[in-house]
Amino acid sequence: MAHGDITHIDIPVSDLAAGRAFYGGLFGWQIDTMPGFEDYPMWRAPNGISGGGLAPRSEGFTQPRSYVEVDSIDDALRRAVELGATVAMERTPIDENSAWAVFTDPDGNQVGLYESRAAG
Q1: Which CATH number fits domain 70-120: 3.10.150.10, 3.10.180.10, 3.30.450.30, 3.40.1280.10?
Q2: What is the pTM of this model?
Q3: 3-state secondary structure of 77
Q4: Does residue 64 surpass a pLDDT of 60?
C-alpha cells in the first residue's frame, strides 16, 4: 500500500462472538483470528482487498476508525498536530515490522495511522 491509502477499518464491539456473527452474516465477511491476536478477530471483505478488525469497545473507542498507511508515523503525527490535531495514541509497535498511532482531527474525528516496513 502507498502513503495515504486507507488500509484498515476497526469496528468496536461489546461482544466479539456476537460481532463476528453479525458482520459475517450481514456482509459475508470471513472473520478469523491470528496467533497472538486472539482477542482481535480480523475481517476480509469479499473483494479480498478491504478489511479490518473487530476490536473491544472501550471508553475511548466507540465509533469505527479508519487507518491510513503512512511512510512515517512520527512525521504524520507531527504534521497532524501542526494542522490542529491532537495525538490520541502515540506510535505503538504492532510487531517488529509495523506500528500504529491515532490522532483526533480538529473536528473531533479519530483517525488511525499505520506504518509498515518490509521484513528483511
Answers
A1: 3.10.180.10
A2: 0.82
A3: helix
A4: yes
Q: Under the phi-then-psi rule, with left for phi > 0, alpha for psi from -120 to 50, and beta for the rest, what region is 103?
A: beta
Identical fold, 7-59 and 70-120: yes
Averaged over 13-21, what is the pLDDT? 92
Contact 12, 58 (CB under 8 A): yes
The Cα–Cα gap between 24 and 117 comes to 30
CB 96 within 8 A of CB 106: no
Rounded Cα distance between 14 and 5, Å, is: 28
What number of other Cβ atoms are within 10 A of residue 115's Cβ? 21
Assess contact for 54 and 11: CB atoms under 8 A: yes
Distance between CA atoms of residues 61 and 40, nearest Å? 14
Please tell me the distance from the alpha carbon of residue 93 to that of residue 103, in angstroms, as a whole number. Answer: 16
